[in-house]
Amino acid sequence: MGNGYLKYILKARGRHGTHSPFVYAFVEQVLRKKQHFPYLSKNEICTIREQELLCKTIAFLKTKSIVFVQKEITPLKGIFETAFPEIKYFFLSGLKGFVPQEDTLIILAPEFLKHQELMVFKNIKGQNNFGIYYLHPYQNKATALIWAKSEDWLHYPMSLDFRKGGLLMQDIAFKQKQHFLLK
């Protein structure tokens, strides 16, 4: 068992260790809820468990649009189109002209992330129900460092670390910066 995982086990909280209604609901409806998605299949990007977490997160946030920035993760689009046909899907080839909108979830794989993309996301502010979902943030030391830097961004007052994924959120309901390590 790695040293980082041991720290996670010792520090992570479940639903009763938080005082945030948003986080409590997230733990109940995403991390603990048993839900089967028959159209998921293991692929080179995500395990089935990671895909399930992502699908439950999308449903929990009531996302209206999903943005893929990296071409490497666009195969996930087909899975989500089957699960959520009402959502609009966008692929950005580069970030020129990117205008964030509320009720949007950006899906990233940190191992494919470029520094300039990271800086664009860091400076987005003032959105409602706007999130960035990090796939497997602890894949290696480089991705763990990207996630650690990202969770400190001031314009994202809510950060949720659940080991298999990470979520940064902007919402007018979040008044102060909070970080939760969840299990």
Give the count of helical stretches.
Answer: 6
Indicate the mean pLDDT: 84
As a percent range, the share of helical residues equals 25-40%
What's the CATH class, please? Alpha Beta
Strand order of the largest sheet: 2-1-3-4-6-5-7
Terminal-residue CA separation: 17 Å
CATH topology: Rossmann fold
What summary fits the major beta sheet?
A: 7 strands, mixed
**Outline, from the CA principal axes?**
globular
Just name the CATH architecture.
3-Layer(aba) Sandwich
Describe the structure.
By secondary structure, this protein is an alpha/beta fold. The chain has 6 helices and 7 strands. It has helices at 3-11, 21-32, 48-61, 76-83, 115-122, 141-150; strands at 65-68, 88-91, 104-108, 130-135, 158-161, 165-170, 178-181. The protein has a 7-stranded mixed β-sheet, covered by helices on one side. α2 (21-32) packs antiparallel against α3 (48-61). The protein is globular, with a radius of gyration of 15 Å. The model is unreliable at 8-12 (pLDDT under 50).
List keywords for this structure.
about 180 residues, alpha/beta, Rossmann fold, 6 helices
